[in-house]
């Protein structure tokens, strides 16, 4: 028993759709810092390459403005403030496209894995976040080991790519010293942009390993025990005892509605010991007689009692009552095969209503019931 209890507490079951949805509401979705870093660096470097000419021209303007100041203006505070304002204005205008690209990248990069999630629970204060013991557990956990290995791998991969880029571009870097200032600035920005693109591509290797790990790790944390599955099923589908009680109440309400229709019946056909079927014929509502109440045993007895109290004719016809009960649902017309038999019953009932005095008409002895509708019990 102890082993069975322990096994039921192990998180061996895959998370249900409800568990995944609840986790997403709480902000528990897979996130990859490496994927975000790679996307951010790639977008920033591509933006730098695309805006290199624009940025270089403004940098040249700023440098010319500040390197060509006359000597007497250097000691004029007001003039120097004007130069500073003009330089800042040009600098902000020059780097604005790059800043805009970085802002968009910073917003969009984190949602590449896990989607967009807004959760107030992530910013709620939790004591375990500042607990030294919890901090030590996190430091020496398997996740921390994985993060350490990723950091080492990232440094090694990026360093190898950086060395390779420097060796590949060393001739162009050395030639910058012989170029004019304008050309050197533009070429430098191009070199920096393409180097950044190559470095961000190197991070693809780290992200390709980290993304599957984050998905697996998040899925593992959301796994459920068998007891949690049972509890969730009870919460979503309802507890068995509650559902049973609801079904019982629904049956009782349906029976009350059915019993309220019995006084409106034209006739109640019975098998005295088991079956009772109440029929109604209304040409305005249906083309054939239809069942407004039916039941067996206790319900059949209740139908007969209400029929007696309401002066509804009761006719004992065991084969016919069984045939109608098994072939026809509530508020459903009787099948065509029973038309003749039911017509004989209704004719007899109408004769009873017309002849209140004298000799009562005799009910039919033989009902033409097809074999397919016959029931022995």
Automatic annotation (TrEMBL):
**InterPro entries associated with the record:** FlhB, T3SS_substrate_exporter, T3SS_substrate_exporter_C
Which GO biological process categories is it annotated with?
bacterial-type flagellum assembly; protein secretion
Subcellular location, in the record's words? Cell membrane
Tell me the superkingdom of the source.
Bacteria
The membrane-spanning stretches of this chain are 35-56, 91-118, 148-168, 188-213
Q: How does it sit in the membrane?
A: Multi-pass membrane protein
List every stretch annotated Disordered.
1-30, 357-377
**SUPFAM superfamilies in the record:** EscU C-terminal domain-like (SSF160544)
Query: Which keywords fit this entry according to its UniProt record?
Result: Bacterial flagellum biogenesis, Bacterial flagellum protein export, Cell membrane, Cell projection, Cilium, Flagellum, Membrane, Protein transport, Transmembrane, Transmembrane helix, Transport
Pfam families, A to Z: Bac_export_2 (PF01312)
The Gene Ontology CC terms held by the record are: plasma membrane
- Similarity section: Belongs to the type III secretion exporter family.
Q: Which PANTHER family match?
A: FLAGELLAR BIOSYNTHETIC PROTEIN FLHB
Q: What does this protein do?
A: Required for formation of the rod structure in the basal body of the flagellar apparatus. Together with FliI and FliH, may constitute the export apparatus of flagellin.
Name under which the protein is recorded: Flagellar biosynthetic protein FlhB
Source organism: Zooshikella ganghwensis
UniProt lineage: Bacteria, Pseudomonadati, Pseudomonadota, Gammaproteobacteria, Oceanospirillales
